[in-house]
Amino acid sequence: MSFNQLVIRNTIRNRHLYMAYFLSTMFSVMVFFTFNVFAQHPSLSDGLNSSVQTGMTAAAVIIYGFAFLFVLYSMDVFLQSRKKEFGVLMIQGMSPKQLRKMVFIENLVIGFFATIFGSIVGIGFSQLILWISKFLVHVDFGFYFPTQAILITIASFFVLFLAISFFIQFRLPKLSLQELLKAGEFGKGVIKPSFLKAILSVILIGGGYAVAILVPGQMVPIVMLPVIFVVIVGTSLFFNQFSVGLIESLKKRQKLFWKKTNMIVFSDLSFRMKDNARSFFLVSIITTVAFAAIGTLYGLQELLVGQMDLNPYEVTVYNTPSAELDQEVAQVNQLFAEDNISVNSTTVHYFLDTNSGNQYMTVSEYNQLANLADLPELSLADGEVLALSSTNFTSGETPSSVSINGTEYTVKGTEQTQVVAAFNNYYLVPDSVNTSGLTEYQSTNWVAPGADYDALVATGKKIFAEFVDTQPKTFLRQTTLDGYAPVLFVGIFIGIVFFVSAGSFLYFRLYSDMDVDVEKFRMIYKLGLSKKELKKMIYQQVGILFFTPIIVSVIHGAVALTAMYHVFNMDMQLAGWEVLGVFVLIQVIYYLIARIFYFNKVYRQVTA
Where are the beta strands (DSSP E) in 194-329? Predict the structure, then answer.
């Protein structure tokens, strides 16, 4: 039997030892493959939403880079947990050169099978995503066999695993044979966190938060990079120093430390936090990026659609009164009638003072529109006017009075309204106002109460094709959603990839410490620890591992989204909280599943 055969057979026969690393790498392959199915989809390459294809290709590169770092770090953690195994191999006569060669071959074998199985699973998973995308984001990606995606994935991950297999050789534990054989038996000594660094972490994170939230919206892009840098440094110090110091201080509180099984949970928690600090830091930053990306994209979509939904009219036709305008109104009525859509409409007039730029509408005309839109009417006393401003639009300073054809009218205030599209210098005036010499405009508005959404889209498409200036609301709303959907889908997909990858990494990190946990719990179990108490301790341990970085990233994400919405002079939107809530729910489900699997595996070995 040759050396290569020995290594390959050892890898296959000890597959339980390599399973966590194998599943992590297979997941990375599956995600990259699935995304490539979309990036290479014929619907995109044939012109449908072609502007998105470049962005999807760039996103695939980002995912590939993330997969490289994820697999590299996972392999590094995997090797560090095999110190005793390496010591046994070396005492049997294996040279350091052969050990490096063994790791090289092992990684290639795992990479080969991970690529094959990841692509196979990815074919089924991608078809499922194609089907789901049609219902969730209304993008009809047809089914196809992804030959090009398969070739790209195999070639890309062949290069990836070849590169990792080469670089990982230099990450082998550089310890003496005695230290390798006794790995895990040495005490970890006394941990001494730095008080100054712990305080600095709070100052950096708090300062970054304050700047991000308090600066004016137009300054957010300018301060973004410095704030991100400061918060990243603060987060690193938080996990390395502050969290460890906090646990050490809690251990000094005897009532808490000696309560039930807390002593066992807290005994090595500081070292676990210290050992997992880099993992927690990476996971928190990755998930923050996911929160911010999806929250921003989803929030922008809700902002765009929300602005359209504020318009109460299905179609509006306006211009100076003319025979052509009357003909256009008649044709719009005819198109609604042809599609059997019942509508109500009204025609109103308003006036423009070309010298001052002011627009005026009489109270009776306004109330006519308000009745059509089922909105409140307004009233005015003689000699006064009311400034109008569209909902969610902040106009300039309102003058105390306006002059119309030489007559002064007192402006009694500003009214937020959806009845008319009112921006700067739009006024509601009494019916008795003298409008001679002002430019008259005519506006006809339609509403379609109870009409079918898809029918309105189809009719709106015909109206828009015939009269571009009409801007039918439902058609333009759906057009905006259809155009934005691929971008939103890409953002959501990348965010989910980052989030689930972070969860998978935490799960892998949990398994890398399982041997230590088994030894610890086996000794305690012999002293009389019950199954219920063991389950409680393991659930607490897994919960700390899963939720510590997520809590930090949720706070980071909420601050980031708040700052992004300030760019649009808006408070934190419901869309942002929905995104954060969904991700927290996913993490809770992930935790509930992971803790059961981990407990069952540990318990079997403890009682064996």
Answer: 315-319
Task: Provide the whole-model pTM.
Answer: 0.68
CA dist., res. 351 & res. 357, Å (int): 10
Q: What is the separation of C-alpha 270 from the centre of its chain, rounded to a whole number of angstroms?
A: 31
Chunked mean pLDDT (size 10), the chain, 608 residues: 73 68 80 77 58 62 75 72 74 79 82 88 79 63 78 88 78 62 53 81 91 80 83 88 79 73 69 74 79 75 78 89 88 91 91 87 91 90 85 67 85 85 82 87 91 90 85 86 72 70 72 74 78 83 83 87 74 70 83 86 82
Cα separation, 545 vs 248, in Å, equals 17
Rounded to 5 degrees, what angle do the CA atoms 429, 430, 431 make? 120
**Token pair for 541:** 């341990």
Q: Nearest CA to 424 among 400, 393, 401?
A: 393
Task: Identify whether the C-beta of residue 369 lies closer than 8 Å to the C-beta of residue 419.
Answer: yes
Rounded CA-CA distance 387/395 in Å is 10
Asked whether the beta carbons of 385 and 410 are under 8 A apart, the reply is yes
Alpha carbons 542 and 510: distance in angstroms, whole number = 8
- Sign of the dihedral through C-alpha 257, 263, 266, 271: positive
**Strand, helix or coil for residue 62:** helix
Rounded CA separation 26/30 (Å): 6
Among 587, 585, 594, 583, which Cα is nearest to 508's? 594
Structure tokens, 398? 């309102």
Report how far residue 568's alpha carbon sits from residue 494's, in angstroms, rounded to the nearest whole number.
24
State how far the Cα of 36 lies from the Cα of 151, in Å rounded to an integer: 10
Task: Cite the beta strand spans of 177-322 per DSSP E.
Answer: 315-319
Task: Give me the half-sphere count of Cα atoms (radius 13 Å) on the Cβ side of residue 4.
Answer: 3
Q: State the Cα–Cα distance between residues 90 and 82, nearest whole angstrom.
A: 12
Q: How far apart are CA 62 and CA 83, in angstroms?
A: 33
